[in-house]
Design the sequence.
């Protein structure tokens, strides 16, 4: 009975931490403790991810279901990485977290019970000042329909150039890239003209497909707290209710 209660408490901690609820706000290391103390040991011991949905020891990440919404998941490194401001995400040997998050979008489809077009799923990371957790995590979920429509004209834009876009009355910039690896890694793309931990700490990054499939590439969407009418969180561009799946 005690073991059952302990597992229940751990699971509650996991889902509340992912949902940025009061419990997570009072414990900014909650996500790290869940992954480091629960999911990774379970995977190492018996090949099962524990309270996580998946643990990939080779690629050094875990996937955790978020309590907010039916379809939202988080990619969390199994290494200690505080967030977008960490120099570790720009290291030459850093894992391709964005690639791994994108490849994990099928969990959203499975929860939505429909295979969504690629440009209806988004990945997002908050700035240091708009997050509750001090462990890097990338949100994976459905997008708002109006955001899909607003980004549609950028499907054919010139590669590797920033273009302005207004989303939710806030200023963003958009770049189309052919992949999410190496120099096209969204962290590195943003850091090219926002160098240093202090500047990166202000950034929020959103990633989606340029079109219904990734044949047209991906869109990197960026804003920051330190620009006029900018944002430190692009999470509102996601729809944790996943209405787009219900509208078919």
Sequence:
């Amino acid at each position: 009975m005690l073991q059952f209660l302990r597992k229940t408490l751990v699971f509650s901690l996991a889902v509340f931490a992912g949902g940025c609820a009061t419990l997570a706000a009072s414990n900014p290391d909650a996500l790290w403790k869940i992954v480091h103390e629960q999911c990774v040991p379970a995977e190492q011991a018996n090949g099962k991810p524990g309270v996580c949905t998946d643990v990939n020891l080779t690629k050094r990440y875990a996937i955790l279901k978020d309590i907010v919404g039916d379809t939202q998941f988080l990619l969390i490194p199994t290494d200690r990485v505080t967030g977008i401001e960490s120099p570790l995400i720009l290291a030459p040997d850093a894992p391709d977290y964005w690639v791994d998050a994108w490849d994990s979008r099928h969990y959203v489809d499975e929860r939505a019970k429909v295979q969504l077009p690629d440009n209806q799923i988004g990945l997002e990371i908050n700035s240091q000042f708009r997050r509750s957790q001090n462990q890097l995590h990338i949100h994976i979920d459905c997008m708002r329909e109006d955001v899909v429509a607003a980004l549609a004209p950028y499907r054919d834009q010139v590669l590797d150039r920033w273009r302005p876009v207004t989303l939710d009355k806030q200023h963003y910039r958009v770049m189309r890239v052919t992949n999410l690896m190496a120099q096209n890694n969204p962290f590195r793309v943003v850091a090219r003209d926002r160098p240093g931990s202090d500047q990166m700490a202000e950034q929020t990054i959103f990633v989606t497909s340029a079109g219904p499939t990734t044949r047209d590439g991906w869109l990197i969407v960026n804003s920051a707290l330190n620009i006029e009418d900018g944002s430190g969180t692009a999470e509102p561009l996601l729809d944790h209710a996943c209405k787009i799946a219900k509208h078919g």
Notes: The chain has one domain: 2-247.
